[in-house]
Amino acid sequence: MSADTIFALASAPGRAGIAVIRVSGDKAGKALSRMGCNIPAPRKATRAKLFDPTTKELLDDGLVLWFPQPHSFTGEDVAELHIHGGRAVIDGVMAALSSVGGVRPAEAGEFTRRAFGNDKMDITQAEALADLVDAESRAQQRQALAQMGGALKELTEDWRLRLVQALAHLEAVIDFPDEDLPPEIADKVWGEVRDLDARITTVLNDAHRGERIREGLSIAILGAPNAGKSSLLNALAKREAAIVSATPGTTRDVIEVHLDIGGYAVTLADTAGLRVSNDDIEQEGMRRARSRAEFADVRIALFDGAVYPTRDEATAALVDENTICVISKADLLDQEREVELDMANDMQPTHFISVKTEFGLLSLLQRLERTIKHKFDGTSSVAVTRARHRKALDECCDALRRAQKATLSELAAEDLRLAARALGRITGRVDVEDILDVVFREFCIGK
Q1: Of the candidates 257, 217, 218, 223, which has an alpha carbon nearest to the alpha carbon of residue 326?
Q2: What is the rounded distance in angstroms from the CA atom of residue 164 to the CA atom of residue 430?
Q3: Are the beta carbons of 25 and 83 closer than 8 angstroms?
Q4: pTM assigned to the model
């Protein structure tokens, strides 16, 4: 158990009806006593008056909850003070806690770090808790909740345990050749290794779905100068985020707005107009526009309806399967209808819109929502959400493949051991003693 007892404001800072201060450690009960409060019954909200330990001045009349260890978030004794959310009340209570010997303010993430150290959660669940706090969209919330519930932990731990068992079998064959072991053990080991390799590879080949949902998706608006890109961005954002001007080349850098489309956090980017220009600044803007288009999850290729059906070749050259083609200024056209334009790479359904009359905007939003859900709605709740997870899985697969090509069983066993350790790093569990446990339990060696 840690020597210090820690406390922190667990609710958002600022003026509010209620503020929650969490205290964790073996001196949490002492802190309550020093503030004139008896330890209440476990997990039962109890009204209590809190006093300054030095001046005995009344600080607040609130609620206190008590979570005795190990049945608490951190695994330690935890007290929660639900007090009024005024700045003076919060500051007074936190100052009172600081005056208690062995009690100090918590460092960033220290409550979760103690929960991990006391086996209340693994690293993936701790990461998911941070993601849940930061979630801005329903998709991010769903993904974080699934990971907090142990989806990634259970999957990788199942893989690790299967690998530990395979390694134990292989080491038994190596170390105890005189024992009466089943002859088909080696075949079973390599069948398991091949199956694990295939399963992990399938999870890795997800187009980085989990990371993209966690970080937010990217949509880039591309088009010639004056095609209406800034007007479209402002219409979708429902505010004047970009300057709209009849002067070509007004937008020279990438302008971003953050939206929620279909429950997904999205960054919508207005880019510089694509055209031939000798202006160094405008050329840099177009370079950035093409770079943003390259890495965008979805592109909106906007063509100027004022010159329709003439198309902008520079924009048409960027159209691919991830592109939604849009004709702007539909109010200037003789007839408003959806057609198919012969673009550079494919025949793409085209949306006619008018920012001025709002014609087609709802249809475009619905198309964006369908496209995003098609690309990122997974059939499984398990997703790789961080580069750390992906790196560990890549290392695991590399080790599994080396093991299958190894010319000596001893080298293969070492690669399987490295693969198991890579999986263990995902959850924070790396225990080589597991291998010996399986050997002695299943093969009764040493009897």
Answers
A1: 223
A2: 11
A3: no
A4: 0.76
